[in-house]
Amino acid sequence: MLTLVIFLPLAAALALLAVPRPGHRAVLAVWIAATAADLALVAAMWARHGTSGTGRIAFETNARWIPSVGAGYHVGVDGLSLPLLALTALLFAACAVYSLRQTYRIRAFAVLFLFLETVCLGLFAALDLLLFFVFFDLSIVGMYAVILLWGHGDRARSALKFFLYTFLGSLILLLGFIGLYLGADPHTFDMAELIRRPPLEGSPGLAGLTLLAIGTGLAIKTPVVPFHTWLPPAHTDAPAAGSAILAGVMLKMGTYGLVRIAMPMLPDAWRRYAWVPLAVGLLSVLYGALVALAQENLKRLVAYTSVNHMGYIVLALGAAGYASGDAAARRLAVTGAVTQMVSHGLVTGSLFLLCGVLYDRGRSYDLGRYGGLARGAPVFAALTAVAAFASLGLPGLSGFIAEFQIFTGAIGGGSTPAAVAAAVSVLGILITAALFLRVLHRAVLGEPGELTGRVTDVRRPELAAVVPLLALSLAIGVAPRPLLDTIEPVSAAVVALVAR
Amino acid sequence: MSVLAWALPALPLLAGALLLLSGRRADRAAPAVGTGVATVLLGLAVAAAVTRPAVRFRLFPGWDAGLAVDGLSAVLVVTVAAVALAVLVHAAGEFAPDEARARFFGLMLVFTGAMLVTVTAADLAVLLMGWEVMGAMSYALIGFWWADPERVRSADVAFLTTRAGDLGLYIAAGCAAAGAHSLGLADLAGTAGPWRGLIAAGVVVAALGKSAQLPFSFWLSRAMSGPSPVSALLHSATMVAAGAYLLLRLQPLLAATGWAGSLVAWAGALTALLLGVVALAQRDLKQLLAASTCAQLGFMVLGAGVGAVAGGTAHLVAHAAVKSLLFLCAGAWLATLGTQDLGGLRGAGRRDRAVGVPFAAGALALAGIPPLSLWVTKDTVLAAAGEESLALYAVGLAAAVLSAAYSAKALIAVWRRGGGARGRAGRLAVVPLPVLAVAACTLGILGLPAVAGPWRQVLGVPDEPGPGAAGLAVSGVLAVATVLAAVALARRGTFTVPDRVPDGLPDRRAGRTAGWALGWLRLEPMAGAVLVGPTLALARALARFDDRVVDGGVRAAAQAGRALSALTTRRAEIRLDGAVTAVGRAARGLAALARRPQTGQVHAYYAQAAVLLAALVVVAVLAGGR
Q1: Within the 102-141 window of chain B, which residues sit less than 8 Å (CB to CB) from chain A?
Q2: pLDDT tens digits for B345-367?
Q3: CA atoms of B506 and B509, how far apart (whole Å)
Q4: Contact B60, A332 (CB under 8 A)
Q5: Which of A386, B187, B289, B404 could serve as B479's disulfide partner, Cβ 3.0–4.6 Å?
Q6: Taking the domains of chain A in order of start, what are their residue ranges?
């Protein structure tokens, strides 16, 4: 079933390619149907898995692939991958619906997005390092094409920067994976094996170097300060759907890798160097928020808030490495980190789609040229306000559930460095509040600006794409238990694995 | 019974959300829906106060949370529901039909629901949820007329200031998890070690921010930008009251730390004193009332600091009635006369007695005139303060005199003969005024010995002392004397607000001190200069740094790569390319050679095969010999 989930979009893409000259509507119909079917399959999978999982792997498939190096087609889901698979399926479906009015090279666009969906789903289900790496690299290639072909502005340059920077990251990551492979006895790329018997236990130096390689590779993808400068141009020049996928799904690959690979496979090194993710996370939180505060370009601003939000995740994972403290609090921090991945995907995904609405009408992201949008586009204004408040962590929406757990877990762990870092990082939610109020003040409320007249309200496909994301954010904010109960066994396992 | 604990906040939250979702379509129905829901809500609140429902659940796996109505919560939920009903009935009569009424009533209901969550929460996480949603709703209500950038700015200031305080609660929650392994409010006082101090510090910062105590007071001045009913709700039973409630609720925690109690007491006393001066300096009725809210909240905070929970709570309840009444009156005049300037309101109370008389009752209660409510409740707090420290009592008493003075100023302004503007408030809008006026006058019974005993029982603090006769006499006499002196001065024309300030310039008579007080102690410019300005400058500097240095480094690395490739092209590539060409040429030569044996003649092939076989045999022998 999992393999079907992963490859269904690819099959749809191939079918689209096989048909000679399909009509515009037919392409869209196939695209939406495929993503919707996949979303339904993931939902069914979650329903069968239940919300009180045991932390064990379900829907497992382990087939021979490259037996000579101990790599297999090994996929499965647990409480960590399930929410991310669901997020991926949902965001791709939202992007398909959002793109109903897209006309430029629609078949290639749909094929590329379906291909990317398979790649992203595959990555979150992969239980083999080599398989993970293949999907990791293919995602970069796919997104490069999306930015290059459907972007705007200085898209060739942004796309190339994105590609080279994250590809460099993936090569460093591969070095780390090879380190894990060579450190394991017998040599293997199988994640389950590597978690059961952590490699490089006897050689802390090599384990540290391996963690450095894996950490750097994932840090570029996440991205954290100072490896984040590929992100703003890539987002600014990408099409709205591309930005939503890049921020909503692909940034999670970095932090997912930290939880799935770095922490359980290199527990000693993670504990020893826990101050690094803690410090880098804190830096990303504050730096990302402050730089976002100074932006005039709405899309760049949202991109920098991603750096801030991903910083909380890294900080929480660092705090979970201080094994001396209260395990219940550290579990809270890890659960919060995973919740933040989901929450950020929903909220930032919808923010980027809303940026796309604005660009579609006014051909500009410049905050200063809009104003008073609430008059002519009240629904757009309301959606933007909800998304902004969700992003600044207002209770009742998903961001609060994630960030409250991160703060409380990181401080509550009781170790001084983690508590101090988390207490300082709380300032981040004040700065994000300031910057989103600034956005609302300048673009949405107040007096009309130069481009305000051009902005008509959201159309039905746009509404149908954004509303489910925000509604889900609200649902998680009000009743988080189904999500948290799914994640909890995994965070308990990760905390226990790091502490061993 | 737990259904009631859910229903109490859920009803206004859901009804408000529905109104907000239906948008302008619901504008016609909104007032009826709003007042209807508020009426049912008051019934639920009374039922909850009687039955004391409680529900426990887990918001986060492994961490207990809950909603519970105990004595203090029971008092608060009834107060909140009653004031919300009064304010919404007034708003139903007052709000013009062309306004976005669905949005207004929807936001007000969510706001009320959030306050109910706050006062019934049994743990820090749920409390913080209500607490922050309330802040967001206040943002939306203060900025209700969003087309005016200045009002939006006011909303920004209000939200950011209170959220700055809220950070304290986030940290307190983390410290509670570390020190008490629980987020329950009841567990906080028993926390061990340094964590207890940190929890108390976080709670105090959050509460002072929400209650607009020093140094956060300025946001309340900004909060006047919203519609008057918003002020009436925000300044009385919700929002600012939440801070005082939290301190009263966590009084055992404050007492346990040793320092937090006196810190809070002094913060409250000084706010009561200084914001009393600010109130006295105002010439705008709503600004005067806003500053007086800070000052009166100061008495509640003082009560929490010195352990007068019963007195502080009584003051909270009585003040809620008084202040919602006064703001509704101010709103009625603003709607009919178009002004909130004290000079412009000259004689307004005299001409529209349906508003003027309740206003007078409220103002006299605010002045602390015996036997009206705030006289007793304030003195209960002051008596406890006197036992703690004489200085604290003196400051509190001076603040009480100031409250008499500013109340007299407002009262004289609207009841003075003269002025010409006429207008009559709508019938529905004045309905709640007499009810609130009666409450404002009579809630002092909470301090009477016969009632005070059960009152303390309800709040779970049976051993707290009541006010002393001497104290009551002193403060009563002082209040009456101050009001009489004000009236006498007004007769001679020195304690009145001029009808109009010439040329719209600031009041010439206002000296430097008065200007300082008129500008709310210049707190907002100071916060701007010390915090906001530097933060924005830092943000801009970091953005430049990010573009030039961080990304510049990446660009430089890329350029270095290009330069290196250019270098290799020029130096190495030519030679390498030459080598490649040579290899190609060699291959062509070899190919020509290889073509030569292919003669097509069988004997030639045979000879070649024999040679090859011989070579293979030699290789095999050599390899096997090793």
Answers
A1: 125, 128-133, 136, 139
A2: 888 888 888 999 999 999 999 99
A3: 9
A4: yes
A5: B404
A6: 2-499
